[in-house]
Amino acid sequence: MAQEVRGVIAPGKDEPVRIETVVVPDPGPGEAVVQVQACGVCHTDLHYKQGGINDEFPFLLGHEAAGVVEAVGPGVTDVEPGDFVILNWRAVCGKCRACLRGRPWYCFDTHNAQQRMTLASTGQELSPALGIGAFAEKTLVAAGQCTKVDPRVAPQVAGLLGCGVMAGIGAAINTGNVGRGDSVAVIGCGGVGDAAIAGSQLAGAATIIAVDIDDRKLETARSMGATHTVNSRENDPVEAIRELTGGFGADVVIEAVGRPETYKQAFYARDLAGTVVLVGVPTPEMKLELPLLDVFGRGGSLKSSWYGDCLPSRDFPMLIDLHLQGRLDLGAFVTETIGLDEVEKAFERMHHGDVLRSVVVL
Ligand code: APR
Ligand code: ZN
Ligand code: ZN
Hints:
- This is S-(Hydroxymethyl)mycothiol dehydrogenase.
- It holds the Pfam family ADH_N.
- Belongs to the zinc-containing alcohol dehydrogenase family.
- With 362 residues, this protein is α/β, with parallel strands linked by helices.
- The relative contact order is 0.15.
- It is globular.
- It starts with a strand and ends with a strand.
- 26% of the residues lie in helices and 26% in strands.
- Adenosine-5-diphosphoribose is lined by residues 43, 164, 167, 187-193, 211-214, 217, 232, 256-258, 262, 279-281, 353.
């Protein structure tokens, strides 16, 4: 029997979000219904509301979530009712050319639930943010979007791995291959950059330089594991990073802003043959100009990090275990917990840079 639950809807471009009754169908083949316990407020949710992703309103927002599987449809074998799971927005297919070559974190054919959740009042189909839609008491997803982790972790902490925190940690440990003794610089210290700092520390980086234009962010970055900080409004970040790395530049520079000027800083702040990782997401009109001779002459690799190049089934349980062992403080990313009716306010605080993460707890 389809169920009715409360969910946060973005009804139209730039309109305030509101709570509505959402109809959640029973899970069909390959699907699962998850009782959401916590869901972080991410920039991408705000971009949906602003019409910046697409115009398929109304959206059911929320996608950094953890909860308990309530029911599964036919053919689902990896999870079962009662499992504590983190939701991911890249359920891998196992069949595309990336999956078949043993690189499923690049899967080119990820999927979501087939059925749609609807608005109880009008019967209108909802577009769930990133195929999840978890600012709701329950949500319908593809079973592959559920990854079972140790249930001893607090849901408001676990859910964050579903998006921004995984993107940042993965940018360092998966894409950047940060290793013991490396020097790392992270440009932009919001939730994603801070996670890249925590990931670099976890990987054994010896020097971790945090760069931001906001001193408050640099202070937090230090508590996340940065060994040095640079305010790039006051100092040239390329010179500062070189100075802090024996005059050479960092082995790995992670760009977590998503702008051409910060990408250029990352490009020139890295040592010869070093690695640049772009995890910040640019907008369509942005362009990059670099002397091609420098691209050649400086060598190394220029990489992008999609969702931290994570493989949820490999990375989520491992990172939760490290957290439970006290080796990765995921709790530090939770600035505040809020109710379902406070998402609009949380967007405002996020916009002003006041929070790393507000997390809705249900
Ligand atoms: N130089 C350095 N830091 C900057 C600059 C700049 N020119 N402009 C902004 N910043 C800093 C901000 O002060 C802030 O601390 O970058 C940080 C961005 O953090 P958030 O806005 O909290 O964003 P976050 O959630 O960390 O995401 C960062 O990754 O996933 C993408 O879409 C996301 O592009 C975004 C990026
Ligand atoms: Zn695939
Ligand atoms: Zn997100």
